[in-house]
Amino acid sequence: MDIPYTVEVRRDTGLTNGKIGIWLFLASEVMLFGALFASYILIRVGAPSWPRGDTILDVPLATFNTIVLIGSSVTMVMAWASLMRRRFGTFRLYMGSTILLGLVFLVVKYFEYSHHLELGEYPRTNNFLAVYYTLTGLHMLHVFGGMVVNAYFWGPGAKLWKTNPVWFTQRVEHSGLFWHFVDLVWIFLFPTLYLL
Amino acid sequence: MSQPPGVVAPGPHVAHEVHHEELGFWRKYVFSTDHKVIGIQYAITGMLFLFFGFSLMMLMRWQLAYPETALPLFAFLGEARMPGGTMLPEFYNELGAMHGTIMVFLGVVPLAVGGFGNFVLPLQIGAPDMAFPKLNMVSYWCLFLGGITMLGSFFVPGGAAQSGWTSYSPVASIAGTGQTWWLIGMIFLITSSLLGAVNFITTTIQIRAKGLTFMRFPFFVWAQFVTAFLLLLAFPPLEAAGVMQLMDRVAGTSFFLPSGLVVSGQVLDVAGGGNPLLWQHLFWFLAHPEVYVLILPAMGIVAEVIANNTRKPLWGYRSMVYSLIFLGFMSFIVWAHHMFMTGMGTAMAAFFQTTTMIISIPSVVILTALIISLWGGSIRFNTPMLFALAFLPMFGIGGLTGLPLAFNIADIPLHDTYYVIAHFHYVVAPGTIFALFAGIYYWYPKATGRKMNETLGKIHCFGSLVCMNIVFMPMFIVGMAGVSRRLFDGGATYDFADPVLQWNVVSSWGAWALGLFQIPFIFNFFWSIRNGEKTVENPWQATTIEWAAPSPPPHGNFVHAPQAYRGPYEYSVPGASKDFVPQYEA
Asked: Which of A10, A37, A39, A185 to mutate to test the interface with B (most CBs of B within 10 A)?
């Protein structure tokens, strides 16, 4: 059965179902990370002393990761824009780069984690590290989730392009909204954890 | 009843040709994407868990009425729980924590939101299905996994969670394995609710029928719509808290563990520096809106049933809707009234007691509007209406007894006593659950094509009403005498509790009798599927759009795409040929 307004826009709301759905989902994500950031503030304010992020964490590495993630957001937009221009080949290229950049982010994060673990800096060591591992860990899960969805649209999901290009473009746009959100969370995480 | 074939037009603009491919058993009844099947799955799951959660309580009531008296029949539960039939305190705590968790997250919410929301809401807005049918299926199965995890936790070493449904840290952070299972179960349940909320909001905004503007929504739709926002925005903070407590327990972090915490005479070997109150804040940031998640759908159901059976429009529909929206908004800024005893300071307490006072106003507006709606109506006293009428005073008692708790000063002696238990149970048990029963009797003909038996329904209704009051009214007395709700012997060890202890016995017998009065309902529910009185599309002569669909509605719901021509409750319109003018008739 076909659900109305999956592809075509409902005239009085000006939106498709998917667009509303993804924004609602992002609203709940804001509440999730908002609660975590609020917890971080409360724990930090109550702590007798709190290390500066750059005394423990590797700022240049994180800066590199920030650039990687911002770059992946740009390629994500380009992937969507290619579909709007009906260039499926360029879409594949840009979408592939987005996924690869996500992978680079995760690999860098892996080295960062293992470095800290080697130094004996575990989540249980102190609350700064607890916050660091929890927030970045949850963020990494989101990056990974976004990569899975993007990989689906790069690979098997791309079949939809042949039958319903408008719908496919919309789905890529929604996945892009999520990807930008994940990027944005990192933009907040980076200064909060590494610089402050 | 045979399902009429025919073209089902899903949208007002586009008339798609729908090809009915025959689905196999698994796709049709188990992994279904049809909102009606999912709604019924939710409802049945919710009812089973309600009964299970109630059974836990019936067992606890034995211990409260007759502390440390053996109940040899239950010796089979094992040495770790009831050796020789005498309940251990640890097992009592397990039952208490799981009763709360199951009733709230696996009983009432799945039935009220998942069940009624899924089954009724798309029909009431004239939709062929939910906006995201596959997501809908996923949210049911997340709930299912959450339920299995919670049930499974009874069998892990040390038993299920024992730290209350609120799972306060640090107790919960250092409790046994059951707590970890509880957290994992909660993450499944939260995921389920989030996906459901996204789906409900999108469906309501997008898939409503042509002509169905927001102010033409039945009140039930409004109630579900606001509820979905509460679920969407209030649950993630608990998810965050759950992740942090999981980290505390699994990775040894100290989010909620303060420095120098002493457990069994030994300083706990953790980094410390955490904040136990943080858990309470995050928990109640969810759990207060959750209270409204429990009550708003109930109000929605009651409004439908009352409008239908008084044969009158709802009195003050618009003010009811605005109250609902205001309630939804306010419910996010009252949470710390659960925490007056935490030493939060007078400024904070003053803020939260003020917002709490304010939030009672829209609740009173809605309740008053429902009561005034009765005035001058020619009321039909059928089973759904009796339950809806019972809801009004019961919710009224629950709401009014909440006012003393909202005041910082009055809360201090009443906090954590049986008074609190009586207060919120009046809201949820004879309140919400009665409304849910009303909804079951009311929409049963739509789901099955048959009515439930009226005589059995009336026995169920009057029996439950009397028993509910026998259970909960004495708790006000016990609570005002100062007996704490946490005692596993119901206060028997304290001299001051002596004069009120006999009320514990009364409550217990009330609870067991209440259990007996559910038997007519359970029998009626199954018996009527095959033997109930056959009905037509619109057996209650109602006005809302769900009654335009065949009973039971086929896949895709409506034979012709419905359209809304007027408001939801056009009953007894002067000059009309019959005493109701359906929303869907031109």
From this structure: A39
| Interchain proximity B197–A134, CB inside 8 Å | no
Question: pLDDT band for position B162 (50/70/90)?
Answer: very high
Residue A89 lies in a domain: yes
CB distance B102 to B53 below 8 Å: yes
Structural domain boundaries, residue A31: 17-195
Residue A35 belongs to a domain with what CATH number?
A: 1.20.120.80
B202·A17 Cβ contact <8 A:
yes
Model pLDDT for residues B420-461, shown as the tens digit of each residue: 999 999 999 999 999 999 999 999 999 999 999 999 999 999
> What is the b/e burial string over B303-317, where b = at least 16 CB atoms within 10 angstroms of the residue's CB?
bbbbbbbbbbbbbbb
The pLDDT value given to residue B247: 96
Choose the weakest-confidence range: A92-101, B15-24, B425-434, B568-577.
B15-24
Is residue A3 a part of any domain in this protein? no
Backbone φ and ψ of B410, nearest 5°: -70, -25
Domains and CATH numbers, chain B: 34-256+270-548 (1.20.210.10)
* pLDDT at B21 (0 to 100): 62
Nearest CA in chain B to A22: B198
Residue B14: predicted pLDDT: 39
**In-domain check, residue A117:** yes
Helix B434-448 / helix B519-531 crossing angle, nearest 10 deg:
10
Best mutation target, B202, B231, B342, to test chain A (most A CBs within 10 A): B202
* Contact check, Cβ <8 Å, A43/B271: no
Question: Is B236–A28 a contact, with Cβ atoms under 8 angstroms apart?
Answer: yes
A6 lies in a domain?
no
Residue of B nearest to A129 (CA): B253
pLDDT per residue as tens digits for the range B319-372 = 999 999 999 999 999 999 999 989 888 899 999 999 999 999 999 999 999 999
For the CA atoms of chain A, what is the radius of gyration?
Answer: 19
pLDDT > 90: what percent of chain B? Answer: 89
* pLDDT tens digits, B10-22: 444 433 444 556 7
d(CA B332, CA B328) in angstroms, rounded, equals 7
What is the full DSSP assignment across B255-286? SS--TT-EETTEE--S-----HHHHHHHHHHH
Contact B273 A47 (CB under 8 A): yes
Q: Give chain B positions within 8 Å (CB) of A1.
A: 8, 10, 18, 128-129, 133, 555-556
For residue A25, the chain B residues in CB contact (below 8 A) are: 194, 198
Q: pLDDT tens, B384-429? A: 999 999 999 999 999 999 999 999 889 999 999 999 999 999 999 9
- Tally of structural domains, chain A: 1
Which residue from B315, B330, B398 is spatially nearest to B361, judged by alpha carbons? B330
Residues in A lying within 8 Å of B, measured between beta carbons: 1-6, 8, 10, 13, 15-17, 20-21, 24-25, 27-29, 31-36, 39, 42-43, 46-48, 122-127, 130, 133-134, 138
Q: What pLDDT is attached to residue B3?
A: 39
| CA–CA distance, B246 with B268 (Å, rounded to integer) | 17
| Closest to B94 measured CA to CA, from B219, B181, B198, B190 | B181
